[in-house]
Amino acid sequence: MEMIKPRENPCLIVVKLKRWERKECKPNSLPVLHKMHVKVGDTIKVISGRDKGKIGEISKIFKHNSTIVVKDINLKTKHMKSRGEDQPGQIIKIEAPIHSSNVMLYSKEKEVTSRVGHKVLDDGKKVRYLIKTGEILDSDENWKKLKEAAKEKTEVAAAAPAADTGAAS
């Protein structure tokens, strides 16, 4: 007796059933963190996308998906629902992340974008530098500026709740 095989439905649509995607992992199940050419505090220029040509400073980095958040770039509108009578609904602008491949490092002095290079100085310190201009990015002065800015930011954040509690009483 001959067995009849049912035909495959040509209109069959394959649907992805999982709501999440498996992240790329190492053998020990830790997520792969991608090496990035930019760091927090770097000045960059957006080279593609809606904000092409804009210049800003990096405020956050997400290594697991190679995205960055830049101050005043890629602003998205978020509608906040009211939470009772004390907090009314509002519309706020938040900075959304963009992919690191869509930005290039920018030199404020020469006003030019450049790729990043790595070299070892005479004292044995490995630093990043802009290839076009030769400007060193990882200098001690830059680190001091970043540390001072972070310290001021934490002081302002610590002072803000104290001011709020004083106004409430």
From TrEMBL:
<keyword id="KW-0689">Ribosomal protein</keyword>
<dbReference type="GO" id="GO:0006412">
    <property type="term" value="P:translation"/>
</dbReference>
<feature type="compositionally biased region" description="Low complexity">
    <location>
        <begin position="156"/>
        <end position="169"/>
    </location>
</feature>
<feature type="domain" description="KOW">
    <location>
        <begin position="37"/>
        <end position="64"/>
    </location>
</feature>
<dbReference type="GO" id="GO:0003723">
    <property type="term" value="F:RNA binding"/>
</dbReference>
<dbReference type="InterPro" id="IPR003256">
    <property type="entry name" value="Ribosomal_uL24"/>
</dbReference>
<protein>
    <recommendedName>
        <fullName>KOW domain-containing protein</fullName>
    </recommendedName>
</protein>
<keyword id="KW-0687">Ribonucleoprotein</keyword>
<dbReference type="InterPro" id="IPR005824">
    <property type="entry name" value="KOW"/>
</dbReference>
<dbReference type="InterPro" id="IPR041988">
    <property type="entry name" value="Ribosomal_uL24_KOW"/>
</dbReference>
<dbReference type="GO" id="GO:1990904">
    <property type="term" value="C:ribonucleoprotein complex"/>
</dbReference>
<dbReference type="Pfam" id="PF00467">
    <property type="entry name" value="KOW"/>
</dbReference>
<dbReference type="InterPro" id="IPR057264">
    <property type="entry name" value="Ribosomal_uL24_C"/>
</dbReference>
<dbReference type="InterPro" id="IPR008991">
    <property type="entry name" value="Translation_prot_SH3-like_sf"/>
</dbReference>
<dbReference type="GO" id="GO:0005840">
    <property type="term" value="C:ribosome"/>
</dbReference>
<comment type="similarity">
    <text>Belongs to the universal ribosomal protein uL24 family.</text>
</comment>
<dbReference type="Pfam" id="PF17136">
    <property type="entry name" value="ribosomal_L24"/>
</dbReference>
<dbReference type="InterPro" id="IPR014722">
    <property type="entry name" value="Rib_uL2_dom2"/>
</dbReference>
<feature type="region of interest" description="Disordered">
    <location>
        <begin position="150"/>
        <end position="169"/>
    </location>
</feature>
<dbReference type="GO" id="GO:0003735">
    <property type="term" value="F:structural constituent of ribosome"/>
</dbReference>
<dbReference type="InterPro" id="IPR005825">
    <property type="entry name" value="Ribosomal_uL24_CS"/>
</dbReference>
